[in-house]
Structures are given as structure tokens and as C-alpha cells.
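Follow-up to my post from last week.
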Amino acid sequence: MKNAIGREIPGETKGQGKLRPFLGAFQGAPETFPRLPPKKRSPPGGNKVFSSLGDLFGDLELKSGATVSFHHHLRDGDAVANMVLAAADKFGLRDLNVSLTGTFAVHAPMIELVKKGVVASLRTSSLYGPVAGAVSRGVFPTPVLIHTHGGRPRAMKNGELSVDVAFVAAPAADRRGNIVGHLGKSACGSLGYAWSDADHAGTVVAVTDNLVPFPLFPPSIPQNKVDRVVAVESLGDPRGIVSGTTRITKDPVALKIAASAAEVISASGLLKEGFSFQTGAGGASLAAARYVAQMMEKDKIRGGFALGGITAHMVGMLERGLFQCLYDVQSFDLESVRSLGRNQNHLEIGADLYANPHSSGCLVDDLDAVILGATEIDLDFNVNVVTGSDGVIMGAAGGHPDTAAGAKLTIVVANLLRSRQPIVVDRVITATTPGETVDVLVTERGVAVNPKNQELKERLVKARLDVKEIDELKSLAEKIAGAPEKVDRDGPVVALVEYRDGTIIDVVRGVSG
Amino acid sequence: MKNAIGREIPGETKGQGKLRPFLGAFQGAPETFPRLPPKKRSPPGGNKVFSSLGDLFGDLELKSGATVSFHHHLRDGDAVANMVLAAADKFGLRDLNVSLTGTFAVHAPMIELVKKGVVASLRTSSLYGPVAGAVSRGVFPTPVLIHTHGGRPRAMKNGELSVDVAFVAAPAADRRGNIVGHLGKSACGSLGYAWSDADHAGTVVAVTDNLVPFPLFPPSIPQNKVDRVVAVESLGDPRGIVSGTTRITKDPVALKIAASAAEVISASGLLKEGFSFQTGAGGASLAAARYVAQMMEKDKIRGGFALGGITAHMVGMLERGLFQCLYDVQSFDLESVRSLGRNQNHLEIGADLYANPHSSGCLVDDLDAVILGATEIDLDFNVNVVTGSDGVIMGAAGGHPDTAAGAKLTIVVANLLRSRQPIVVDRVITATTPGETVDVLVTERGVAVNPKNQELKERLVKARLDVKEIDELKSLAEKIAGAPEKVDRDGPVVALVEYRDGTIIDVVRGVSG
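User reply:
Got it. Predicted complex:
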């Protein structure tokens, strides 16, 4: 059947069962599923600490076919998912369903475990590196579910995703299971994506390389939600966990795009007292944030909050009084990690508060402006951030669809060409974020406003921004690079792109090779 | 049928259905009940704020027979439960099941609402004032369920207690539903008992008399858990919400008991680095805490944490470095309210972390020592804190059974006589806390150690405390006051005393008059 943006969605797939087609960004009604709360118990004096994964697995009631979860705050330095899945293999477990909030190059060993039958399925918000390629080549026996940061807590809370054992990487933990992310050699800052696991999983295991004296406070996740603590040598490679610094681009094209994006924000009328903002850690996004900061300082504007993946740049804006607080679901660099541990106005938040559309009110809904990237954008403003224009998986849904839906002003920034291909296309090969939630595309050759937002267009024209129609930008790009080749979309479905409300906005089909 | 401490428990009662008899303090296995998670949704730009209860009730889908909840941090100053139930009456609602975490004199209007059929049942941890008397006289159509502070989050989490609409008194709230308890004219400090409601109720309504600018941070309860905000004139009477100061007793008998209790702690061997402690706000308990503080200062002992209802005295100990942190589920006085708002080591906690035995590990289990009161204690060390020795309800289970079960050393302090009646009896008229969880009774005429704890007895004898057998204390009391009159226990069951694990430890029978 075709969904609301005209994508063909199968009625059901192996692993996921029946699928609900995307109905529109704000149309999907909450669904809930009966669930039996896990049976937990805390006898006084009981021991939670295990000195190895072997001991832990001997104690855990984990069976083949179970669902296990991991979070990705350790990013490309994560050793936890690999070591736990290797231990599971050693214990003879098979057919595990894996919910890993983000998949990086470091997770390449999972491919062999899929082939061996240890891992049967994967849910994730991002796919980078060898696993992404393996998914595209159809290595997984069932389609991989690509969810958003807000979609996952929704699925956990409504009973759709039931995790048997959650493994939480804990850069610091005490013997009772109080854990934080901002201390220790594997410090990664916020543990926000794991908060839903701590709330809902049958058994919660903190994996730590830094057992500290009780009581560890204030906890990111408190002891009443953590069943076991397992001590390991190392959670991973600090170089992959946080980058030392996040640099602002010096590329003149990116700087031009950034300056235009900042001007769009200024012209929108939203840049005033209480302004709230999210931007990514990419070079152009950071540069745009710097221009926004300059405008705020010049006009003495005190913002409300900055949200999302937090960088040193946002920490600096907080410290200069440009925001009242930071809401941090993921800390991108060392300075953010440090700030989270010491600045009371730098708040750790869970993914539910961040972006769950079926909560009582998530913070993305309070965003004035968000700056986002794209691998493709089409004439309906639908955005692709999951595959390249060749249809091969290499990206992340992440918080893209969430923030786009929530923010008053959603800006997509992109070079007109990407890998020599036009960024603007007739129809994105993989829709991740629906066009109805995107307000404006900013390129180095002009900005295009979604026709649904005429008022914004008028403001941008009035502010003398280089406003073009989106098909003009497409023509400009094609003049330089030629029209893109038609990509075959006939392979088997290898991934489902789940919209934040649980409907399917698109599928990814396999490629050979 | 008879339960594990020999109490006759009916197989079922109206309202509560089948009852599970108490099996022993650590024997009750976790039970869970299938539940359908509530359907929630947060469209961006949606309004949560209502300017009156009338407007709110027009919008709420609240029906006769529903379950509504309230928390008791406003104590005897609370106007919220009364105004909401009055509004419900005005809207024609009937047969409401009320879960109010503590019931005070101020809640007397509930009696008329019971008679009128608006309120059908009550769950609470405490019954003071006219409602207590009304329960004993059988005014409620079904037995009132008396739960512990840890039992309630257990029941909410396991699906046993399903709340349709939770009303959370919010001394400060923003338009998005972020709330805190330590600000405003109705400041009450911690909102910890309401955290489970925020997690599990179908609809969560913040009732506030202090709407502050967004974003209010850090929140006690964040906006993703709050569906509606209703602005009212006043949450209640500040004089009833917090007492200005909590005074240490000057009564020489109470001081003697307090000194003995402190000596018991000292002799127990637990008063060392990392010592953790809870005590009530009663005069003797506070005095004991002062003696403990003096011992810690003298011996340069740095404790771990103090827990529970927090008083200025505990705040003082924190500030003098005698504890690393305070875990605050309820703030008893103005100084505690202030400290919660400004001291990072003074942490607000929910009732689940405080005391839920069917969580992954609650903080009462980490207590070294707790000092508790009693209206009666029997030769098996079972304690009554719910009724007087006449069987009339006038007290609270509260955290008594929770902390007694969790702490390594549970001390009950009491004058040998209470209202001219011996405090030590053959058999308490209403068992609240099982004797197996009580270590020692401290009176002004000597201390009695539970025979199950021979090691403690030897330590106390060695420390030259006035150690007696509990029946000796009973005889001493009876020599002064005479043997207590036998109280008739043949009336209808008017209340169930639920142990923290969900089993029934005793029932309260009605009295005439």
C-alpha cells in the first residue's frame, strides 16, 4: 500500500509483522500494547556486582530469542555491545533481537554474529560503517528497523518494544547500581538514550570500568532501576567516545551556507527573548550557531534553552548567558562532558523528554529553530538522511524527524551538490523526514521555502535573502552535475524507516555487491 | 485465614477483592498485572494550561467510578484534594476511588463526600483527624487500604493500582508542565510521593498557584509526564504545609530515651565511615539524631547519607559534612525546603527509589540505622503505628514498615506508657510492622533486644546499656498502669493494613460511637 507521501509500504515483513503506513507527521494515533510489568525485587543486603561477563551470564536468565539493548553514547569507541554479544555467543545464545540506539564502524563484529545466527534482528537510529553496508547487502535475516530518537522511547513505553535485558554502559557506577556518564576514563556525558531502557527493560545491567564508592550522586540512572553491575576492564576507546574538540568549518561554501541559515533565523522573527535552538555537530551547523550567537550578543537576547546533542559551542553559549539551560541527551565532546558534571544549568535528559511524540510533551516541540542536514531533499521537501542517493545505507534518522516535526522553524542546510550529485531531486530515494515538517532549504546558491510557509517566504524576501523556488535549485544543480541516474528500487526490503509515531515512512531496498 | 504473624485475614473484601495474607517480611513474591499503557500525545503548540478547575473538568475525560490520586506533601495545609473532589462533586461525578498518599485533619470534607457517594474508596498511608475517626466508625462503604510509602509505588508499577487522573500539587509550574516543589508561597519541598503518579497515571494534572516562565528547571517532574496545568488561587495554608521549625524536645524522659537510642547505635558497631541514617521528626527522634551528630563529630565520622522525611536537623548535619548527601522524599520544614532548592547534595527522590521492595533496589535497604515510633509493641516485637491501643485509627504506616525492613538496625523508641496505657503488650491490636524487622525497643526504663539479634544484645550488654527482656518491660509498665483492658475486635473490617509487598498484615475493625 502507498503511505501519505506516496511510498509503497509492504503490509507486513518478517520480524516486524504488520506495518502501519505513515499517515502524516501529526496523524498517527498512539497505539498501546498490553504488557506485564517485569517482576523485580530488592532484598536488603543482596549483591548486584559481578566481576566478569562470564559470571553475569551464568546468573542472568537470558535465553535464545530474547531482546537485548544497548545505547550509543560511546559512539565509535563502544566496546560494550561487542563484548556482550561475544559473551552471548560463547554462552550459546542464538536469535537475539538487538536494540542498539546507534550503530558505528566499531560494531562491525556484529556482521559475523548475524551470519552465525547469534543476532537475528536489529533496531537502531543510525547505521554507519560496515554494518550499514551489510544491511544494504541483505545480510540480516529480517529488515532492520531504523527508528528516531523519539520513536524508541515511544515504542518502549507503549509496550511495542519489550527489552529482556538492557546493557547500559556506565562510565561510573557504585555497587548499588547508581550510575553517571560524566566521570571516569570512558566518560561520555549524558546517558539519556538509556533512560527508557532503565525504566522498562526486564533486567537492567550496568557495565562499568569504574566502580566508585557508594553513594554515587546525583545519579543519571538510580539504583532502583539497575538490577546488576558488571565490572569490565574497559568500556571502549576514549578516542572514539568523544572527539577532543568540535571544530567550526573553514570551508568558504559551508560558511556561506551557515551565514544564510543564521540570517533565515534572524528574518523569521523567532530570534528574541527565550529563543530555543538545536543544531548538529557538523561544521556548517556549528558555524551557523556561531553566527546566531553573535546576533544574540549584539541584540542582547537571552535565549531559553539549547537542546539535543550538545557541543562545546553550546556550552560556551550557556556560559556566556545566551541560554538559560542546556538539555543534553547526548554529549558530543569533552567540554560538554565536563560541563554536564559541573554546571547545574546543563541538564541531562532522557530520550522520552527529548523527543517522544506520544509523551505528555517533549522538548523538541518547544524548539524555535533547528538546523539539520540532508543527503537528499526533494521537491516536496521530503528529506533523506538514511541512504546516499545511490540507495546505500550510510546515515542516521536520529533526532532529524523529531526536531523537524517539533521546531517552529526547520532549516535544512546542504551544499547544492553532494558527492557530485544534486542534493535536490524529484523524489528522495529514501524518505526519512516528511516535507510537511521542513520549512526551508539553505544552499550556497539560494534558499527555498516550503510553500506551506508563505509567511516565512515573505519575511525572507523582505530581508533580502536569495529566495528561490526549490525546483530552481534543482535545475541549478543539474546544470552543473547533470540529472541524477535513476536508481533501481526493486531489491528486497532490507530496512524499514519508522517514523517517530511508529508508522512506516519508507523502506530501504537491498543493493547487490 | 491466619497470616504469618497469626492475624485473621478475610479471604476477600468489598472493593479490594481477594486478599493475600502476609507471609513474612521478605517472603511475598512480586505479583504483576497486565496493563495497557496510557495513550498520550503531544502535538507541538498544544495548550496545557487551564485557568480554573471548572475549565479543566470540562476537558478531562473523567468518569464516575474512576480512580483519582493526590499526594500529601502539603500535609495539613493541603487544599488541593478538597477543591478537586468538590469540583468532581459539582460535575456530578460519583463513586470515585481516591488514592491520597496521606490524610490529615484538613481533609475532613471528604467525609461528607463519602456519605454523598462521591468518594467510594480510599487508599492512604496515614489517617489523622476526622477522616481517621470516620473510617473507624465505618463511614466508608469499603475498607480503606492503608499502604506503606514503598508499597504504593510497587502497586502502581506492577499494575495493581491504576490511576486515571493524578492531581499533583505544584508549588511552581511552567506552562509546559515542568514543576518543582521548593518555590512559591505554597512551597513544600520534595514532591517525591507524586513521582510514581507522574510515571503511571493515565492523565497527570499539575495544580498550581504559581505559574512561572518556561523553562522551569531542573524539574522535580518534567513536562513529558504532565498532561495539564491548572491555575488556582491557592494550594493551601502555608502554616499547615510546613512547620516553621522542628524543635528538639526538652522533656527529660524523651531526652533519656533519645540518649539511649544513640548509645544503641554507637554500641551496634554501625556508627562508622559511610554511616546512613533515618529518623522521624518527633521530639525524641530529633534529640537522638542530635546525640548521634555529636558522636560523629567527636569521632570524626563522615556518614554516607540521611534519608526520608528531611528536617532542618538533617540539613544541618549535611552542611557540617556529617553526611555526603540527603535523599529527600518529603521535606518537613522550611529549612529543608530551602536546602532542597539550593544544595546540590540535597537530592529529591521518588517513593520508588525510597522504599519500593519490588524495585531493583531501594534506599531503605542501604540504611544502617533507623529510629521509629510506636503506639504499641508486643512480645514478638510487632509494632502498631496505625491505631491507638483502643483500636481507633489515628496514625500512619508511612515508611515505618519499609525502613524497619531495610535498615540493618531498627530502633523503636517509646515511653513505657502512652496515654496511661502500657506500650508493651502481649499482642498489638493492629500489627503494622512485623517483629522480625525490629531489632530493639528503647524506653526510659531500659532497652529490649529482639531475640533474633543475639549479637546486638551482647554488644549492648557489653556497652553497659540497661538491657532487659521485653516481657520485663511489659511487667514494669503493668505495675504502673495495670494490665490493659481487652479490646473487642469483633466489628466489621473498616481498614486493611497492607504490608509493603502487597500482602495483608492486619485488618482494623470498626468501633461504635
